[in-house]
From TrEMBL:
The keyword Methyltransferase applies. Residues 48-139 form the Methyltransferase domain. One of its GO terms (biological process) is methylation. Gene3D superfamilies: Vaccinia Virus protein VP39. It holds the Pfam family Methyltransf_25. This is Class I SAM-dependent methyltransferase. Transmembrane segments: none annotated.
């Protein structure tokens, strides 16, 4: 995985949310959470596995809505932040945080109703293997996002120290088919890359987002979207 050592440090874990989801990044956080809720609802009494749960911002949100959820991550430091969030929200008894490898999930076949991963596949060195494992342990739904190769993310990617893996729609569809999944639906968003929003004040983000959304609702915007959400079924 790209950036694996960097990602596991205590310093990065402690600053992760503040660096990515403050300023205009608040808008990104809201949009990603809405995408997850729209795809995974209803959640009451569902068994959910989150791959690369990080600091638990999705994990805790889903537990608050009735899911029994396992959050798996390679970083103990990140999950420490997640456990603190879960205790503060009063949902620690609905979440198990587990350190593990997404390429070798420690669960039997068909163990979860839903398996999902956000901000994971752009770091994946073997995406087919990861997606196959997600499919194996899910008896229903697999949901994930990708960063796209026909977007402004390509320009932004040059500035990143470790880069990101970018995907085209045909590649994702091949991955889904190869894992034995059926694509139920997909949505595409953010003509402007995430990094742009994180650099501007929150008070300006809404105005840029309005333009972004207007362009994104056109065929050209769909083509240029930097992020895609993929909802597949076993």
């Amino acid at each position: 995985m790209k950036g694996e050592e960097w990602y596991q440090t205590d310093e990065v874990a402690q600053e992760y949310d503040a660096k990515r989801f403050s300023r205009g990044g608040r808008l990104i956080d809201r949009r990603e959470k809405r995408a997850v809720l729209e795809a995974l609802n209803p959640l009451e009494d569902r068994k959910v596995l989150e791959i690369a749960c990080g600091t638990g911002r999705f994990t805790v949100m889903l537990a608050e809505r009735g899911a029994d959820i396992v959050g798996l991550d390679i970083s103990s430091a990140m999950m420490t932040q997640g456990r603190e969030k879960a205790r503060a929200a009063g949902v620690a008894d609905h979440i198990e945080f587990l350190r593990g490898d997404a390429a070798r999930l420690p669960f039997p076949d068909d163990h979860f109703d839903t398996v999902f991963a956000m901000r994971f596949f752009h770091l994946a060195d073997t995406p087919a293997k990861f997606l196959a494992e997600m499919c194996r342990v899910s008896k229903g739904q697999v949901f994930f996002d990708t960063f796209n190769d026909r977007s402004t993310r390509v320009l932004y990617n040059w500035l990143l120290p470790m880069g990101s893996r970018l995907y085209g729609r045909e590649e994702v569809e091949r991955l889904i088919d190869g894992a034995g999944l059926t694509l139920a639906d997909a949505s595409h968003d953010f003509v402007l890359p995430y990094g742009f929003y994180r650099k501007i004040p929150n008070r300006l983000a809404g105005a840029f987002r309005s333009v972004d959304t207007a362009v994104g609702d056109t065929p050209l915007g769909t083509h240029l979207a930097s992020v895609s959400y993929w909802n597949a079924h076993v």
